[in-house]
Known about the structure:
- It contains 24 helices and two strands.
- By secondary structure, the protein is mainly alpha-helical.
- It has two domains: 65-226 and 291-318, MetI-like fold; 320-544, Orthogonal Bundle (MetI-like fold).
- α14 (327-360) runs antiparallel to α21.
- 44% of the residues are buried.
Amino acid sequence: MTELRPRARLDPWSAGAALIAALVLLPIVSVVWIAFNPAENIWPHLLATTLPRYFTNTVLLMLSTGAATAVLGTVTAWLVVMYRFPLRGVLEWALLLPLAIPAYFGAYALVDFLEYAGPVQTFLREIFGWSSARDYWFPEIRSRGAAVLVISAALYPYVYLLARAAFREQSGARIEVARALGAGPVARFWRVGLPLARPAVAAGVAIVMMETVNDFGTVEYFAVQTLTTGLFSVWLESYNAGGAAQIATVILALILVLVALEKSSRRRLRFFGAARGQRPVEPIRLTGAQGVLAALVCLLPFALGFVLPVSVILSHAAANLEYWAAPGLLRALGNTLTVGGLAAFLTVAAGLFMVYGVRLTGRRLPRLLLPVTTIGYAAPGAVLGIGILIPMAFADHALADGIEALTGVDPGLLMTGSAFALVFTYSVRFFAIAQGAADAAMGRVSPSLPMAARALGQSARGTLVRVYMPLIRGSVGTALLLVFVDCMKELPATLLLRPFNYNTLATRVYEQASLENLGEASPAALLVILMGLGAVLLLARASR
C-alpha cells in the first residue's frame, strides 16, 4: 500500500513575494541582457570615444560630492549635537530643508543668480564701473565645480541626518573623559566622535554618491558629460538601444561596487555602547565669536541648499503671476498627482503585502527575496527607464498586434503610450522606501496581538486589516507621502518614459528652464518645493 503524502498547497504569500521580487528585478535583468545581446554593438566605439570621458566625469563628480557632503553633513551634525549657540534650535531642523528641493532647481537658481545679467555681476559692474565682461574676471558658472557645489548643497542632509543620530547615541561620559584628559574640540571630534559615527557617515555618503550618479538635470544644465547624460545621448539622439543599455550596465556596475564598499566598511567597523545607564551628551554653550562662527558654519549649507533656490524661484513666481493660470501648469499638476498618487498607493500596498507575507509564512523563499527587492532604489532612474522601456515596448507592440488580429481594431500602445510605464518605474525605484517603512512599523507591533487574532479565528487577511492596519496607519501614511514626493521629483526616468506631450511638474520645470525661461518654470518649481516640504517636516518629526 503506497503512503499518501499531503499535497503541497500553493502559498499565496510566497507566490506574491516571488512575483513582486520578479517585477522589481525585471528592469535590471533586462538592461544586462540587452547590453550583452545588442542588435548593433557599439561597445568598441564607446570605449574609443566618449565612454572614458563619461566615466571619468562621473567618478570625479561622485568623489567630489561625497567628500563635500561628508564634511558639510558631519561638521554641522557635530555642532548642533555637541554645542549650544545662537539659532541652534532653528538650524537643527532647517538643515534638513534642502531635501525638499531637487538639485536641478538649485542649478537653475545659481545660474540665474550669478550669470552675467544676474544680480551679482550687475551689482559688481555698477559698483566698479565695469562696462562689459572683458573688464573683469568671473568664475565659470556652468562647470563641474558648480555642479559639485549645487549637488552637495542639495544632498548633504542625508549625511547630516545619519551623523546627527549617531552623535546623539554616543555616551556623554566619553566626551567628558576626553575633555578631562585635555582633548580640545578638534581632538574630541577626530578621536572620539568621528570614529564612532563613521559607519553612519559612510552610509550617508553612499546614498549621496548614488543620487549623484542618478542626477541628470543638474549635470545636463551645467554641460558636464556623465554616464547618465551619455545614456540619454545614445538613446534619444542615436536611437541605439544596445548602446544605451551598455552605458546603463556601466552605471549599474558602478552603483553595485559602491554598495559593496559601503557594506564592507560597515562590517569592519563595529562599536558598542553601554546597555544601560548611558548618559546623553550635554551640549557645551558657545558664546561670543565662537557661537557666531558655529552659527555661520551651519547657516552656509542651509543658505546654499534652501534659501538661495527658494528666493530666486519665489522672486520669479511673484514677478510672473500670469503663468500661474497657464493650462500647461494645470495639466502638469494633474499628471503629477495622478501618476505619483497611483504609484505611491501601489508601491506601499506591495510593500505591505510582501513584508506581511514574509512575517506570516515560514517558507524560505520570501525571506531570501525580501532584501533583493531593495535593489531598485540603488539603481538610477535612467537605468530603470531603459530596462523597462525596451521590453515593455516589445510587449506593447505584440499585445496591440494580437488585439488587432482578433478584433480588427488597433488599440494603440496601451503601456508605453500611457502613464503605465511611469507608474511601474516609480514603483520599482521607490519600493525600498515602502518596504522599509512597513517592516519597521510591523516590527513595533507586539507578536501577541496577531497571534491572539488568529487564535480567535481571524484569517491572515483579517489579521492584517483589523489588527495591523489600525496600529501602523501613521507609518503607512508617511510612506505614502515619501514615495509620492520622490515620484514627483524624479526626472531621468520621467523624461525617458513619459508619453508624447505628457508633462509632470518636474519635466515642465526642466523644459522651461532649459529654454532659459525661469519665470514660466517657477510656479511648477514652487509647487514641487511646497509638497516636498511636507515630506521633510514629517521626516524631521520622526527623527526627533
